[in-house]
Amino acid sequence: MEKIEAYKCQYCGKLYKTMKGCIKHEERLCTKHPDRTPYCYHCQFYDPSYESDSREEITYYVTAGYDGREIPQFKKFEPNQCTLLGRKLYNNTRLSDELQEALQESGYQPMPTPQSGGCKHFITKNQSK
Ligand SMILES: [Zn+2]
Predict the structure, then answer these.
(1) Angle ∠(113,57,62) on CA atoms, nearest 5
(2) pTM recorded for the entire structure
(3) How far is CA 49 from CA 7, 20, 100, 125, in A?
(4) CA 35 – ligand 1 centroid, Å
């Protein structure tokens, strides 16, 4: 057995062998980073969809190989909604550009986060009406 040095993400606690890897994760990938946490989950206008049969299949295309062929890919999404704006929402932290484009064409919009400029409609769920 050998003892190693590791770096820990300050937001989610994930461990990395290199400082570089940990910095990259914290700055760009960590889903627990407060600047990337969507407002929607704590907003009274958020309507999560829990029914698995209401999932919507989104088709998107990924360019592959040297000939630039476009390969169709499929991914299912739960149409979570903003009841105020009547828009379907997706959490964009981990999705590829191709997939985000396809989602936007299907009427989805990314959930607002502090990093993306916030949301002017946000009202905390617990707030009394
Ligand atoms: Zn993390």
Answers:
(1) 80
(2) 0.73
(3) 36, 37, 19, 17
(4) 12
The set of long-range contacts for 13-21, using a CB threshold of 8 Å and a minimum separation of 24, is none
Instruction: Decide if 9 contacts 25 (C-beta within 8 A).
Output: yes
Phi, psi of 71 (to 5 degrees): -100, 125
The tokens describing 71, both together, are: 């390969």
Distance 28 CA to ligand 1 centre (A): 9
Question: Residue 109 forms beta bridges with which residues?
Answer: 89
Question: What are residue 62's DSSP bridge partners?
Answer: 71
Please list the rounded mean pLDDT of every run of 10 residues in the chain (129 residues): 95 96 92 89 87 83 86 89 91 84 92 90 75
DSSP 8-state class, residue 106: T
- Using the mean position of ligand 1's atoms as its centre, give its distance from the Cα of residue 7 in Å: 11
